[in-house]
Amino acid sequence: MTPSHAEDNRWSDLDRPPLNAASLRRTLLREGGLWSSLDVVPRTGSTNTDLVARADGLPEGAVLVAEEQSAARGRLDRQWSAPARSGLFFSVLLKPAEVPVERWGWLPLLTGVAVATGLSRVAGVDTALKWPNDLLVTVGDEERKAGGILAERAGAAGGSGGGVVIGIGLNVTLREDELPVPTAGSLALAGATTTDRDPLLRAVLRSLEQWYGVWRGAGGDPAASRLQEAYAAGCATLGRRVRAELPGDRAIVGEAVAVDGDGRLVLATEAGVQEPVGAGDIVHLRPAN
Fold first, then answer.
1. Which of 269, 263, 232 is nearest to 250 (CA)?
2. How many CA atoms lie within 13 A of 259 on its CB side?
3. Phi-psi map region of 42: left, alpha, beta (phi>0 left; psi -120 to 50 alpha)
4. Residues 6 or more apart from 170 whose CB is under 8 A from it?
5. What pLDDT is attached to residue 5?
6. Residue 80 has what pLDDT?
7. 116 within 8 A of 122, measured Cβ to Cβ
8. Which of the pair, 13 or 258, is modelled with greater confidence?
9. What are phi and psi of 277, to 5 degrees?
């Protein structure tokens, strides 16, 4: 094979084989289960954008995986990219019709708990959660971001087709010289026992199905489903001094003391006030001491 053809060969990087879509479908799509379809595409702009556009015509549990994304988005429409097959880049469609819409804001936090649980079981990696949507791993003695979660409303608002598309991006085999920023990380750099993406994806989707089922069965109640407790236990933001950068160029500095029943981060400020933060960027400062 000549170098000019190597880029087009899906096996050109032997350390990064393609996902086995047929095997994933056999093990994940089952009667009575959450996952209704699973598609793997070689490349797309954004799996979230694709699923949001098709949400009304798809049943709950559709999964779309891309080996590479050219227009991946994080929160606040931030762009990010990664080499083909270097991570897990996928979106799922959830339609929790029986859960009050005001509790749907827990879905990205639930997804974080599910991802951390699945990765711990299969890869032996402790994945911490940075409120509201970042997945952190430890590389050496440094805390680094290895992934993120983006939830978007989709489908007919208030109708039977309404739902939420949740996108997950996770760096798996990203090498040090491929990191987009020094604060990024990957499962490989964190010492994962496996970087085989097939069992990793299966573990994350099974964990998400389990947590979602419990939460939905409790009517979305974060306390009754023990989601609030599990999130707090795995949240690296709690107990630390942080700066919340809010819309309108506002900022609040304080100790993160709780995640409340609405999924908001509660900050105890130096003025002796507890302020809940529902949206914004959180910067971890030195631990409160």
1. 269
2. 25
3. alpha
4. 87, 88, 89, 115, 135, 146, 147, 187, 200, 204
5. 40
6. 61
7. no
8. 258
9. -115, 120
Compute the residue count for the chain: 289
For the beta sheet containing 87-94, the strands, ordered from the edge strand earlier in sequence to the opposite edge, are: 37-41, 62-66, 87-94, 163-171, 142-154, 134-139, 128-130
Q: What is the pTM of this model?
A: 0.91
Contacts of 106-110 with C-beta under 8 Å, sequence gap 24+, read 106/215, 106/220, 106/222, 106/227, 106/263, 107/151, 107/164, 107/166, 108/132, 108/133, 108/149, 108/150, 108/151, 108/166, 109/227, 109/231, 109/259, 109/263, 110/208, 110/211, 110/212, 110/215, 110/227, 110/231
Band of the pLDDT at 246, cuts 50, 70, 90?
very high
CA angle 211, 44, 115 (to 5 degrees): 20
**Contact by Cβ (8 Å): 67, 42:** yes
Q: What is the pLDDT of residues 260-274, one digit of tens each?
A: 999 999 999 999 999
Euclidean distance between CA atoms 59 and 8, whole angstroms: 33
Handedness of CA 94, 20, 81, 113 (dihedral sign): positive
